[in-house]
Amino acid sequence: MSAPWRRSPERSHRFALRLMRWIALGLGRRAARLVLHPVSAYFLLSAPRARRASRAYLGRALGRRAGLADLYRHFYTFAATVLDRVYLLNERFDLFDLEVRGAPAASPVLLLGAHLGSFEALRAPGRRATGGRLAIVMYEDNARMLNEALAAISPSATQDVIALGRIDSMLRVRDWLADGGVVGVLGDRGLHDEDTHAVPFLGAPARFPLGPMRMAAMLRCRVVFMAGLYLGGNRYALHFEPIADFSSAPPAPQAALATYVACLERHCRTTPFNWFNFYDFWGEADAR
């Protein structure tokens, strides 16, 4: 049987989520955080592919060669945010210090995030700002996995999901926005057959999906970057930053994507241990 971190990022994430759920509900947050150390050490030692990807990324983000302590901190930060998901999805926001920096624009707006920090930390201010009308847009397989994860963590947790890849997907997003809702999507990982564009990122070209920007252009909505950055302990900084406005004098999708990537790069340099794409991100650009 292969080690969890040798599987796809999505399967590894589900495995970590199930493990953290058991730890969190069985021990409570204070005690559970102590267990994160051996858990992080285990994954660091048993996952050579993820370890190499972490070292390559951190070398770029830190501007120096990443040592073993840096790799451990990267794995530990990921484990800490996965643990906190259990409490955030159960709406235990009282356990955390959530500092909001910026605010989502009024609808129609597309909130464009990344595998950076914790999306769940954004749920509280996001729902308050949109009156609870916040939907996540993702491909159907990922939507199914999200629903399974939510059911495993908290049966009472609900998330509006609009699945891509269907004939009526764009119409559903359009109707959601027209009804005053806001949609969120992650912009740093696409499917293998999705149209991508190479953009300079942390010193070398990397490929990012064009789909989110093309969606915003078709729907003539604003794009706002979002990230729930973990600062240690119980602290999160929730960032909302304007990226592009396709409602008037729209930019080219490629130009808007470059602005998004520049914003992502800035946060990766500021909080480098928050980015959780544990695979050869730049190698994909070389392969095409």
List the SSEs and their pairings:
Elements: H1 9-27, H2 29-46, H3 48-62, H4 68-89, E1 97-101, E2 109-113, H5 123-130, E3 134-139, H6 140-153, E4 160-164, H7 169-178, E5 182-186, E6 196-201, E7 204-209, H8 211-219, E8 222-232, E9 235-245, H9 253-270, H10 281-286
Parallel strand pairs: 1-9, 2-5, 2-8, 3-4, 3-5
Antiparallel strand pairs: 6-7, 8-9
Helix pairs in contact: 1-2, 1-4, 1-6, 2-4, 3-4
Tell me what you see in this structure.
There is one protein chain. By secondary structure, the protein is of the alpha/beta class. It is built from 10 helices and 9 strands. The chain starts with 8 loop residues before the first helix and ends with a helix. 40% of the residues are buried.
The side-by-side strand order for the widest beta sheet comes to 1-9-8-2-5-3-4
Radius of gyration: 18 Å
Give the N-to-C terminal Cα separation. Answer: 31 Å
Gross geometry? globular
Helix and strand succession?
HHHHEEHEHEHEEEHEEHH
Quickly count the helices.
10
Counted up, domains total 1
Q: Which strand-content bin applies to the residues?
A: 15-25%
Range of helix content: 40-55%
Name the poorly predicted regions: 1-7
| Total E-strand runs | 9
Task: Report the biggest beta sheet as strand number plus sense, adding barrel if it closes.
Answer: 7 strands, mixed
Structural class: alpha/beta
